[in-house]
Structure formats: structure tokens, C-alpha cells
């Protein structure tokens, strides 16, 4: 099995960057990292995951869709799209890797979102196993194995480097010109590292979290539960949970008059905002309780109902770490599950 020494990582990434743009997690503040374009001798973050997910590479927070300009009394359509660069995202964890499949179900089903499709076609995902999972992690509740992530290439981390396993043709092509930085090692070391990760996950506080009370067909049981009122009471509707979430896909589309032309762009939106889905006839969700309920019902009931049972959450734990009032999907699941057991 191929192995990359930790001391050779910089040379490996520098050589890879000659063939395509490489993005890596970089520490910008203590315990806060973000994906940035790799430059030689850039120190790669040793943290578990970035503050915001790798979703941004395929579904950016803002993007121009189209422009309009009047010329000779005719409307000229301005297409801002260009062929996207080939790129690779290094250090993606199993939870974020699974999130791309969830986003694919939304943006690549008919009618296909060609903006998203273009980025997906040009991007490679270089995933990394989780050597030190955090107490906020609960990906295993959704059937994700942090020791065996999806992706084009899987990097299994050990103390002195990474075992490397290409999973797709794109991954094999990526590694082909980089063989000089890799050595052969027995795969036993990789299996030991994976076993340690799984053992750690079993000891985490959220290891016993169950999804049995949720899924498709549970709308009638859960929609009118009285616990929604108390759960949503402290929510301030800031939308932080949706902006750090790797699977949230809601967006708004707006037109902006520059004086010379009209530009149409889209930007992330949040079901937690009071003007979300507001129409000329009003807003279908007038209270914070209704908006709060919508967020969690979508992830735990509506999405699996329409997508073969797959939940709209990957257990990354970002909402646990970022919510200013410490409300999150885990508390919702535990509260509703306990209440259901009592009925």
C-alpha cells in the first residue's frame, strides 16, 4: 500500500499544485481553520475540521448567475460562467464527504443545476480519516465511518504520515505523477489506525445517538409534538447553524441594478430567518417555532422521505460548536425520542 511520510507532505502538495489547484485547511485563528489555496511551505491545519465545510467549493455562499443589459432597445443576456479550473480539496473528513452526495441529490437531479454540476465535474475530493474525533462528532449515527471516508483518494492518518488509497479513476490520475513521494508499506498499519478511530468513536458522548424515531413517514407523529415550543423558545433565528452546515442547500435569488446592467445572483438563505419563503401573499411560517421545526423536520423526516431514507444530516457537529444558545439537532433528536418513548 502507498504511504506518504509526514515530512514529505509539503513536497507532495507542491508537486500536485503544478497539475491542478490544491486547497488545504489552514489555521487562521486558534481552533479555527478554513480552506485556502495551497502555496509551498503552507502549514496545513492539524485540526479535525474547518469552521465552514467544503460545501463552499461546489455551492458557494454567493455567485453571479446571469446579467441583463438593454442595447438598442433589446435585452442582451450576459452569461458570467467560464470553464472552471481543475482543483482538489485536501483533508476532507468523512462527514463532509458524505454531504456531497446529499447535495448531489438536490442539485444534480432534474432539472440539473449546471453551476453546481460544473464545479463537481472539475473537483477532486482527497479525504482523510479522523485520527482524533471530537466530543461533538456523531457521524456514526447516520451510518458514516470516519475511518473509511468516501472520496477520490482516502488518506489514512498515522503518527508519521498517511496511507494512501485511490478510489476513483480521477484519484489514480492525480497520484500518477506523484509516485516519487510515495513508498510501499504493509497495509497493516492502516488497519490499526482505522481500528483506533472506531474505538474512539464508541467512547464519545454521542456514540449512542439513535435515529429510530425519525425518517420518512414520521411527519404525522412528529409535526404537532408539544416539545417544539420549548425547544425553539431560546432560538434567536441567527442562521449560524445553517451557514456552517455542510448539507443545507437553501438559497435566495436577487437582482441588483448596477446602473449599467442588472445582475442576478444567488446567495445562501436560512429557514431560520423571518423572511424565508416570504411571498406577496405573506409568509407561511410566521413564528420562530414554525421555522425552527421546519429546519429539523427537513433533515430528519422530509429529506429521507424523498431520498430513499437518507437523512439530511451527517453528524459533523458544527452546529453543536457554533450555536450561541447551545441548541442543536442532537438536543432535538434526544428530546423528541424521549417524548416518544413516554407515549
Short recap of the structure:
By secondary structure, the protein is an alpha+beta fold.
Keywords, separated by commas or semicolons:
eight-stranded mixed beta sheet, alpha+beta, 21% strand, 2 domains, four-stranded antiparallel beta sheet, 343 residues, single chain, 31% helix, globular
Secondary-structure blueprint of this entry?
Blueprint: E1 2-5, H1 9-16, E2 21-29, E3 32-37, E4 62-71, E5 74-78, E6 87-92, H2 94-107, H3 114-122, E7 123-128, E8 153-157, E9 161-166, H4 169-175, E10 183-184, H5 188-203, H6 219-222, H7 227-232, H8 240-244, E11 251-257, E12 262-268, H9 288-306, H10 318-322, H11 329-342
Parallel strand pairs: 2-6, 6-7, 7-8
Antiparallel strand pairs: 1-9, 1-10, 2-3, 4-5, 4-12, 8-9, 11-12
Write up this protein:
- The chain contains 11 helices and 12 strands.
- It has 343 residues and is an alpha+beta fold.
- An 8-stranded mixed β-sheet has the order 3-2-6-7-8-9-1-10. Strands 5-4-12-11 form a 4-stranded antiparallel β-sheet, with no helix packed on it.
- It has 2 domains: 2-203, no CATH class; 219-342, no CATH class.
- It has helices spanning 9-16, 94-107, 114-122, 169-175, 188-203, 219-222, 227-232, 240-244, 288-306, 318-322, 329-342; strands at residues 2-5, 21-29, 32-37, 62-71, 74-78, 87-92, 123-128, 153-157, 161-166, 183-184, 251-257, 262-268.
